[in-house]
Design a protein that fits this description.
seven-stranded mixed β-sheet; alpha/beta; Rossmann fold; 6 helices
């Protein structure tokens, strides 16, 4: 069993913001795989996809970004999912808009949702896909991550989300080392 979690904030006011690229990724995966997020349990909205008899959960935590670890930990416990079978997708201020970076471990890099997950799971050995949203040093970070993409940036984000969705689909049949080699 696998768990794919896209980080973001619930609510329409956040739906197209920089901080919600993880939610955008889950939406794109649902489109590609024909999955509906029709379950609401463990502080998350999620859907289940089956591939070759394996259950794959696609989830959006409903805890708000800074408490994402609560939903991830609850889903892992409820479905008895091993840490190596989890992939987290989140925004990254330190990467240019639309740039992907896949990693198997590391710090949160200041991303508070990832920090919550690391803290509650007591491990930084977590597969993740970071999607660059760049940074604007002239704006407060909180205001920036909650702002919307420009038209030019939106095109780059759409391409990155498509590529990240392809990487996750590839991960269903390959270990994460191979996924990193192909998509980094």
């Amino acid at each position: 069993m696998k768990l794919i979690v896209g980080l973001g904030n619930p609510g329409k006011e956040y739906s197209k913001t920089r901080h919600n690229v993880g939610f955008l990724l889950i939406d794109r995966l649902c489109e590609k795989l024909g999955v509906e997020l029709d379950k609401n349990k463990c502080r998350a909205n999620y859907g289940i996809y089956f591939r070759n008899g394996e259950k794959i959960i696609l989830a959006k935590p409903q805890t708000y970004m800074n408490l994402s670890g609560q939903a991830v930990k609850s889903l892992m416990k409820f479905y008895d999912i091993d840490l190596e079978d989890v992939i987290i997708v989140h925004d990254d201020l330190d990467l240019p808009v639309g740039k992907l970076r896949l990693r198997m471990k590391g710090s949160s890099g200041g991303q508070k949702g990832m920090g919550s997950i690391i803290d509650l799971l007591h491990s930084s050995n977590i597969n993740r896909i970071r999607i660059g949203i760049s940074n604007n040093k002239l704006m407060d970070t909180k205001d920036y991550v909650l702002s919307k993409f420009t038209k030019e940036e939106k095109k780059l984000i759409d391409e990155a989300v498509d590529k990240a969705a392809d990487a996750i689909i590839y991960s269903f049949d390959h270990d994460f080392d191979e996924v990193m080699s192909k998509y980094n």
